Structure to design on (436 residues):
């Protein structure tokens, strides 16, 4: 199995997928650069050695190295005020689609996306502009409050238009996320942006002193029992069957299962490298892990049914989801294990992403043991830029529970959050076998 990735030669489909991440030539910075195995501008020779390593002109490096080279290039010069103009883009808006009911009293509004127009997107010096059949939409940077991406769909929230979903049909949505972030940073200089979602946050907004409000020492949420039990017997049977199958198929090695508390509430905090992380980790412990899952996963009725049986609950990660926070509190107050990916999304290049401030804030406010989990090998299994699976060994290392000071949200300072984030990050990197 260790030989699975040696000298892999991917076809045109593989290059198409990796170009979602490496949307500019890491050597010369040209867009639309890749013609099979060569850059059309600088003629650099490219070879995809594995899903985690790329060779350019004989220099083999991790994909993360080449992605950072891509990020280092500046935005292209604005021609007639336009920095970038997209190909065909489908615009969708958010719509409510009934009530979601889960175990342990979980209740949430189910949101879906309704396509409303098709057109092109333009990135300008101080705004985003969409031109479609139904008319133009202008989003000034001063009014933009959130920016992120799911698959190839850019999610933009503005004070004037609410959530807008731009699905790129002909090019990389990741390119647009990165370029808009650069344009926003340049527009807001000298102010420094620390986070782009679930809200654009600035360095000046850091809380240096505890707020006067006392806050709730113990977070509680009203619980209504929708079902007689807190979990599905059907899913328990599926887990029992899936555990030996997954161990043998990938294969999976697990260390430190004894570090998961045998009873009582706790937060399980793994790194997020693959769509399969929650599945592989979720079937290994004897106890069930209740995961937050992005709202878009619940759009298909069959997948929605499976996710409910798997003890998950939907979260709109592109905005501050109050119902999602309440459901997390419900899970913990019922004595369950809550699964949170502190990065908030899957890594694009295999490196650990910055942790979401809101998730660190929630961990400190809950005041329960935090179990760090390092997952290695999952990126090679199914990186974010592809939808295909290639067998690869996966190792799960579960660390001893961390006990952070229990601090109500209003009393938390930037120093508290940085200390918790730093400790958690160093533990995850240690468990992954990396140097902090």
């Amino acid at each position: 199995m260790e030989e699975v990735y040696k000298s892999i030669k991917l076809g045109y489909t593989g290059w198409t997928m990796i170009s979602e991440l490496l949307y500019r030539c890491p050597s010369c910075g040209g867009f639309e650069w890749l013609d099979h195995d060569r850059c059309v501008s600088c003629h650099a020779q490219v070879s995809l050695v594995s899903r985690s390593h790329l060779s350019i002109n004989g220099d083999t490096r991790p994909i993360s190295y080449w992605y950072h080279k891509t990020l280092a290039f500046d935005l292209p010069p604005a021609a007639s005020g336009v920095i970038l103009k997209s190909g065909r883009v489908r615009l969708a808006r958010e719509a409510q689609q009934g009530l979601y009911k889960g175990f342990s009293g979980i209740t949430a509004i189910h949101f879906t996306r309704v396509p409303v127009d098709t057109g092109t997107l333009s990135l300008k010096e101080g705004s985003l502009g969409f031109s479609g059949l139904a008319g133009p939409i202008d989003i000034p940077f001063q009014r933009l409050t959130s920016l992120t991406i799911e698959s190839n769909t850019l999610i933009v929230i503005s004070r004037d238009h609410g959530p807008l979903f731009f699905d790129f049909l002909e090019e990389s949505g990741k390119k647009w996320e990165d370029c808009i972030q650069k344009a926003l940073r340049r527009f807001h200089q000298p102010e420094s942006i620390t986070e782009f979602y679930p809200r654009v946050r600035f360095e000046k907004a850091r809380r240096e002193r505890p707020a006067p409000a006392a806050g709730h020492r113990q977070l509680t949420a009203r619980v209504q029992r929708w079902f007689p039990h807190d979990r599905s017997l059907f899913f328990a049977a599926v887990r029992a069957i899936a555990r030996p199958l997954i161990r043998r198929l990938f294969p999976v090695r697990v260390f430190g299962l004894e570090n998961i508390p045998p009873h009582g509430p706790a937060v399980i905090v793994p790194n997020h490298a693959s769509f399969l992380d929650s599945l592989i980790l979720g079937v290994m412990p004897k106890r069930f892990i209740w995961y937050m899952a992005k709202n878009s996963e619940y759009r298909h009725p069959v997948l929605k049914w499976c996710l409910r049986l798997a003890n998950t609950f939907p979260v709109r990660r592109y905005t501050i989801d109050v119902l999602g926070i309440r459901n997390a509190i419900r899970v913990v107050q019922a004595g369950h294990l809550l699964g949170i990916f502190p990065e908030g999304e899957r890594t694009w290049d295999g490196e650990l992403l910055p942790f979401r401030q809101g998730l660190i804030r929630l961990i400190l406010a809950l005041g329960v043991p935090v179990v760090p989990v390092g997952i290695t090998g999952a990126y090679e299994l199914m990186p974010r830029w592809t939808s295909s699976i290639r067998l690869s060994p996966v190792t799960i290392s579960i660390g001893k529970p961390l006990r952070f000071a229990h601090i109500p949200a209003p009393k938390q300072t930037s120093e508290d959050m940085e200390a918790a984030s730093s400790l958690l990050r160093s533990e995850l990197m240690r468990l992954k076998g990396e140097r902090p």
